[in-house]
Amino acid sequence: MRPLLLPALRRLWRDHSTLQLGLDPARAVLLCDLPPGAHVLLDRFDGTTDLAEILGVAEDDGLSRDDLTHLMGMLVGAGVVVDAAAGTPLPAALDVGARHRLAADAASLSLLHGDAGGVLARRHDCMVAVHGQARLAVPLASTLAAAGVGRVHVVGRGVVEQRDVAPGGLSTSDVSQPRPAAAAAAMARAAPQVDARPLPPRRRADLVILAGQAAGDTELVDRLISAEVTHLVVGVRDTTGVVGPLVSPGRSSCLRCADLHRRDRDPLWPAVAGQLARAHRGHIEPQDTALAGAIVGVAALQALAHLDGGAAAQTVDGTLELALPDCRVRRRSWPVHPDCCCRDIALRRTG
Ligand SMILES: [Zn+2]
To answer: How much distance in Å is there from the Cα of 224 to the middle of ligand 1?
Structure first.
């Protein structure tokens, strides 16, 4: 074992024998009654020195073998020391620049998961396609690429218009350029290492994101459901940003489930939904720039939560809604509807 005291944790000595590791009350650890010499010893927990070697010099630091064993037990038990020898190295394909750009993400991931290299290696192998409104789709794709997702493709056509320009996305210099190439260039500005090519046809996407009106593309949504591709919806409804649901076909509620729930509450919903699917002459779709940025961030977090595995994202069987003017956040629950065909997938899977 090569002990590594997580470098992402700030070390704050409260007195000569009490060490606080980290700042956030939810994660910070307080180590009390540390023996003299612990200061020096902790510097040796840098992930490069074998534990046996540290044990060999512990007495030079004024610590007995028992002191060291006790200290190691406390640190490992608190999850603040990991075995650097057991950690997953970053993907070899990442060059020095990418490693430096991802250093802050890796530090954050080390606090969440311990093995940041393992999470970044998984992200590097992931493939994500983003459909829909460029003002949301391109900043979101750029965020995922910058967070280490290896292959991200923005599906689009036509040329860039002024209304597509957004912070972190397409720029004014992209106007009149073909959208797909401009989106790839925007991602490369944030993450030159990203592979922005279209996803290979035989490889199921790890996630498809539907931004804005793309969620109303019933043909696309039906294809995703039948191919059992996980998809996430993000968009703006008047002055409220909506992220979710994150649909894992057969495992969680889908867009049709939400539609059926609305129909149950409002018998005239089908007439409204039919009109919503069509463009309305003279209508300017409202989308506050700051709100768009906020939902891009929230959607990226939900996407990464799915790609990284672990606890279920909050948008599974629900939506997160961010309302102007002060970005009040609420979660709405959208369970599976008993009449929805997505239940067939679940039954097929279990049967
Ligand atoms: Zn459903």
So the answer is: 12
